[in-house]
Amino acid sequence: MELQQLAYFIAVADEGSFTRGAQRERVVQSTMSAAVGRLEHELGQSLFRRIGHRIELTAAGGILLDRARAIVGAARDVRRELDSLDGGLHGTVTLGTVLSTGTFPLAEVLGAIRRDHPGIALRVQFSPLTLDRHLDRIADGTFDLALIPEPDTTVASIGLRPVGTLDLVLAAAPDTPLPDRPLRCADLADVPFIDFPAGWANRTRTDELFARAGVERDVAIEVADPAMALDLVRGGLGIAFVPRRLTEDRHDIRTVVLEMPALSRVLMLARLGRKQSPAVETVHRALLEHAATVG
């Protein structure tokens, strides 16, 4: 049993798919399948069962998953402790982030961290995951740190610090036939929307906004990428709530003025509550310092 096999097994279990698990680990699917197959052969147990086009853990797989997380996490902690023995500041830090970080200038901040701490290998994963999945990846150690919208409920083991805001604006193509005045939800009932998939945090808040107004809107297209949503808007396929920064200085997009409250969330920096490696602590501190500077 090898650590890499366990890491691949965890990825497949988390993603519910060999294809998505391979994408997460940046390997081809055949490599992922072969590694999990060898693990099953060594253990003499099937770890997954196929149900239609999806897979789920067997009883043996469920038992192994908790142990595998602990083993992989312990190995990661050992590597971090060994990295710090010579007194130098080095090691690998994995930062997960939602696709848009709002007012937090991530590219600028990452450049400063790499410039100030060249010994730290900073791995950044822009991920179209739901908020719960981001929290899971913090909890299981896949992400050392994560930039996420503020959750509606807290997780005891995860610490959260505000670093920015995520503002959404309603974008439309310039020739979209909409009244030239601040609009209410009712004015948009017959207009096709482009939105995030159901269950995503921003989609849920938008659905709740229209539900409170007693309006059922038409979500014609679901996408996970805000930039793609904006391209579809520009093509006249619908209107969409998108991050404000994506619409700035865009002459091919019309920002619709609304009567309803602005859709805004706090961007949080998430991490496990316990003390981590010097490299993780340094990157965490730097992110907070830069957030304070730009805020």
UniProtKB/TrEMBL annotation:
<protein>
    <submittedName>
        <fullName>DNA-binding transcriptional regulator, LysR family</fullName>
    </submittedName>
</protein>
<dbReference type="Pfam" id="PF00126">
    <property type="entry name" value="HTH_1"/>
</dbReference>
<keyword id="KW-0804">Transcription</keyword>
<dbReference type="InterPro" id="IPR050950">
    <property type="entry name" value="HTH-type_LysR_regulators"/>
</dbReference>
<dbReference type="Pfam" id="PF03466">
    <property type="entry name" value="LysR_substrate"/>
</dbReference>
<dbReference type="GO" id="GO:0003700">
    <property type="term" value="F:DNA-binding transcription factor activity"/>
</dbReference>
<dbReference type="GO" id="GO:0003677">
    <property type="term" value="F:DNA binding"/>
</dbReference>
<dbReference type="GO" id="GO:0005829">
    <property type="term" value="C:cytosol"/>
</dbReference>
<keyword id="KW-0805">Transcription regulation</keyword>
<dbReference type="InterPro" id="IPR036388">
    <property type="entry name" value="WH-like_DNA-bd_sf"/>
</dbReference>
<feature type="domain" description="HTH lysR-type">
    <location>
        <begin position="1"/>
        <end position="58"/>
    </location>
</feature>
<dbReference type="InterPro" id="IPR036390">
    <property type="entry name" value="WH_DNA-bd_sf"/>
</dbReference>
<keyword id="KW-0238">DNA-binding</keyword>
<comment type="similarity">
    <text>Belongs to the LysR transcriptional regulatory family.</text>
</comment>
<dbReference type="InterPro" id="IPR005119">
    <property type="entry name" value="LysR_subst-bd"/>
</dbReference>
<dbReference type="InterPro" id="IPR000847">
    <property type="entry name" value="LysR_HTH_N"/>
</dbReference>
